Amino acid sequence: MSIDKLARSKILKLPTINAPEASEEMIRLNANESPRSLWENNESLDLNRYPSVRPTKLFQHMAKFYNVDPDNVLAIRGSTEGIDIIIRTFCEPTKDNIISSSPTFDMYQFFSEIHSVDPIDVPLKYDDNFQLEIDEVFDAINDRTKVIFITTPNNPTATLVPYDNIMKLVENQKNKSIIVVDEAYIEFSNSPSMINQINNFENLVIMRTLSKAFALAGARCGALIGSQRIIELLKKVVMPFTFSTVISQKIIQILSSNYREKTENHIQQTINERERVISTLNQLENVEKIWPSSANFFLVRFKDTTPIYNAFKENHILVRAFQDEPELKNCARITIGTHDENNILLEAIKHS
Ligand SMILES: Cc1ncc(COP(=O)(O)O)c(C=O)c1O
Where along the sequence do coiled-coil regions lie (predicted)? Predict the structure, then answer.
């Protein structure tokens, strides 16, 4: 049984766009480019030339970074682009649906609406610390459910979905739906990644990003990681030439420098700061609840937001405040900043 059954039939018939990789000594008269650079260029950046359709070297570096085979990786311009590619590969407009669990990252619903795919919501259990009730996901699935997004840790609740529950879903939906595990914040948690399961389940895609723990949000780079066949299908849909020459070179340069080891300290510092900020806030009168966090942010409910938000305004502090969603009434999602920034936040709340 192949994953092909789940892809849109039109996509299956599409060829994968390719172009020959050009090397220095070739006379490049094949792509209607300018033969020369017209700006002063001492960085050896051939911006007169198109970059690779899909930058093989960048893919290889991303594969090494995530410790998987290059055939199991599609480098993407952040997970945001990944969500779009997955929906376009598997969901037939006006027929299929996706499942996600609110409150969560709003791009799953956003891209499903854009592509005329029905978004089904299986809300997290507010009364149970925003846990995902996996049986409710099973109840919501129908024969047009093509993609199920599991976000762990979740945004904005910072909560985890247990590994065993995701495994249940992946096993149960074998040959039926694609399970996308969005692990954007996993480096801040003590939860194992699902990456080690990609060769056991063709219907599993892990979405990772350099934007959060690896401090490269401006580079717009992440990875879809899955079985060789699923990556081949996703490659048919990804836009050609998406990574500019400048950004691929920059990311390759960064990843070539033992980057993962260099970020370990930063990740641990963020976790330590998170625990310090949460334990300080938990002692304050105006704080009603802070949900346990496995991310680089936390969700807090205040008893009265007016003095708090006034203090934030006075101190030029931006947070993500929730107003409309009933279960997030008086809640804010606050990112962990530097030690000094966190102190300013704590002082502002204490004195409000
Ligand atoms: C759960 C989740 N997934 C994905 C993303 C997007 O990350 P990227 O910068 O890789 O597009 C975010 C961004 O906030 C997020 O919260």
Answer: none
